[in-house]
Amino acid sequence: MTTPPGPRVVLGMTLYNNATHLRGALDTLLAQTDRDFALLMLDDASSDETETIAREYVERDPRVTYFRHDQRRAMIATWREVAERAARACPSAEYFAWVSDHDQWDPRWLEMLRRELDSDAGLVLAYPITRRIETTSGAELEKGPRLFETTRYEDLVTRWSYFCRHGVGAGDMVYGLMRFEALRQVGIFRTVLRPDRLLVAELTLLGRIRQVPEVLWFRRQSAETSVSRQTQTLVLPGEAPRGFGRLPWLQHARVLWREYVRPEDRSIPLPTIRWIQMLGLYQVSYGWRHFRKTETSHAVGRGIDNVVWTRKVVRHYFHHAVYHALVGGRAALGKVRRFARRAVFHVLVFTHRFRRRRGSEETPVR
């Protein structure tokens, strides 16, 4: 008797104190039209009703399994562990995706993403257009989608350049469907700031990224992330590696150099000078994008806006002053001309009358 093959897709869900939205997330995932998947949940020591709800779904659906940490291990360790557990539990799985414990998915989400990966062996990641929803009510927010894909770029260097210059939405892409083998090649989730950005960068080195042009994922709006906040949530206090507080693009460049340039048997055999150029472009473009989001950049922007506004006001009033000067000058000139003509007229009339009167006085009476 042969053992039936395992599922082609494994979804890894990390849990942490989101019991309020957990049922909604699980219901939309388990309602997928493509049912050939396993869902592995890893609870990072939640203190709310998360465990009770998760075990309830384990009893209801054989595709669902649940594990729990005795103590919190923070985001990076938990994300990496859920992917590693998924690989061990389903060694035949071709695709993997992280899924959150608070978002919602269209029923065709998995079907559409897997169809893209099945049809193109050069793709390493497929993800949909995302809509943001309000934290509590779930109402859609008026926030435009982030659009990015590299399907047109077969050449690695060209693809990398496009990613560096135009890549947006790594936080959305990291929840896409990935080839499991590619994910293992890039180290799953590295211990750096902004690990999602580094993961997408490494996947870009291995293949192309496809964005399905349909809204299939509804992401619940959360508090804005920041580099300083990530130093507290990605790893536990005291467990951060050396240099973890450095600028994220410098950390990423260091990892990329260590993993892809330093080894003698490089997995991507590009000349060293080409790697230096690529990593330089990555740091400059990412650093500039990051700087534009900082308070310093915003302050500079506000200063520039104030200068531009002042210039516009000065130009506005200068133009008004010139206009009124010209109009007023022409009006004054017109008045002067009319006054002069009237004066000349009255002088001529007076002179004419004077002459007539004088002429009448000089004429003798007969």
Question: How many H/I helices?
Answer: 12
**Helix/sheet category:** alpha/beta
CATH class identity of the largest domain: Alpha Beta
Task: Report the CATH architecture of the largest domain.
Answer: Alpha-Beta Complex
Helix content: 40-55%
Strand content: 5-15%
Main sheet: strand order: 3-2-1-4-7-6-8-5
Described by strand count, sense and barrel closure, the largest sheet is: 8 strands, mixed
> For this structure, what is the CATH homologous superfamily of the largest domain?
Spore Coat Polysaccharide Biosynthesis Protein SpsA, Chain A
Instruction: Name the shape in a single word.
Output: elongated
Enumerate the spans where pLDDT stays under 50 for 5 or more consecutive residues.
none
**How would you state the average pLDDT, rounded?**
89
Rounded Rg: 36 Å
Helix/strand order, N-terminal first: EHEHEHEEHEHHEHHEHHHH
First-last Cα distance: 160 Å
**The CATH topology of the largest domain, please?**
Spore Coat Polysaccharide Biosynthesis Protein SpsA, Chain A
Count the E strands.
8
When the domains are counted, the total is 2
What is the oligomeric state here?
Answer: single chain
